[in-house]
Write a structure and sequence with these properties.
Blueprint (H helix, E strand, L loop, with lengths): L9 H17 L12 H8 L3 H13 L3 E4 L3 E4 L10 H9 L4 H25 L2 H17 L4 H17 L3 H5 L1 H18 L7 H13 L2 H18 L7
Antiparallel strand pairs: 1-2
């Protein structure tokens, strides 16, 4: 069905189409500057309604991956305009083979955010934060990071630290940081057998936060990130 009368199907379809096109863009199949066909032509080629196609393009435009202009049509934007920390864009990037420099970039960003957050958390944490960190560590210990449940617990641990920092802009980054933790961990297991158990690294951060030692918490998080990057066979840039 290619008319505009399948609106009830659009919410499901437009998400699938946005995903498929998004993966093509971030993987380089559709290069920046690539112009899409007209709305009618493109929707018919995909076998969907114009409504669903239009909604998919709106999703991609909101993430900075495409832009639409009257008479000029829709084209892929330069990478500098992409919202690289969008949860979906991160997921689409790691469906393929992300550039090594991009992975290092993510760890550098985490190295700016998370050590400072750990230091703040050591000063400002509450009982509820410590309980969440403890529960997350227990789940990591129970399932391990090869298990999806262990990976989810890993995300919980890092998000709990951001929450415990009691800084709203930092907390707003929780989803992006959690997604970065998830996809780099997934990629690491896809590419390398885990050479060591990273749980003790997390426990050292937790112990320092529990003790209220901001300096130790910050240092422990720096070391955790350094070792995690090394587990991927990568090293910090000079």
């Amino acid at each position: 069905m290619t008319g505009d009368d399948d609106r009830s199907f659009a919410p499901r379809i437009h998400g699938i189409i946005a995903h498929d096109i998004g993966v093509e863009i971030v993987s380089g199949v559709r290069q920046p500057g690539t112009v899409f066909g007209g709305e009618i032509e493109a929707s018919e080629a995909l076998g969907i309604s114009r409504t669903a196609y239009r909604e998919a393009i709106r999703i991609l435009a909101a993430k900075g991956l495409v832009e639409s202009r009257p008479k000029a049509g829709t084209r892929v934007t330069p990478r500098s305009r992409w919202n690289l920390l969008d949860v979906d864009v991160l997921a689409w990037t790691f469906e393929g083979e992300p550039d090594t420099d991009f992975i290092i970039d993510l760890f550098e960003l985490r190295g700016v955010i998370e050590p400072a957050a750990a230091a703040f958390a050591a000063r400002r944490r509450r009982d509820v934060d410590l309980a969440e960190m403890h529960d997350a560590l227990e789940a990591m210990r129970r399932y391990g990071l090869k298990d999806a449940r262990g990976q989810t617990a890993d995300q919980r641990f890092h998000r709990a630290i951001l929450a415990a920092a009691r800084n709203e802009p930092l907390a707003a980054l929780a989803n992006s940081v959690g997604a970065a933790v998830r996809w780099t961990t997934t990629f690491k297991h896809r590419k390398h057998a885990l050479p060591r158990d990273p749980l003790p690294d997390h426990e050292r951060v937790h112990v320092a936060i529990v003790a209220g030692d901001a300096v130790a918490a910050q240092r422990a998080m720096v070391e955790l990130l350094r070792l995690a990057l090394g587990d991927m066979g990568l090293a910090e840039r000079e």
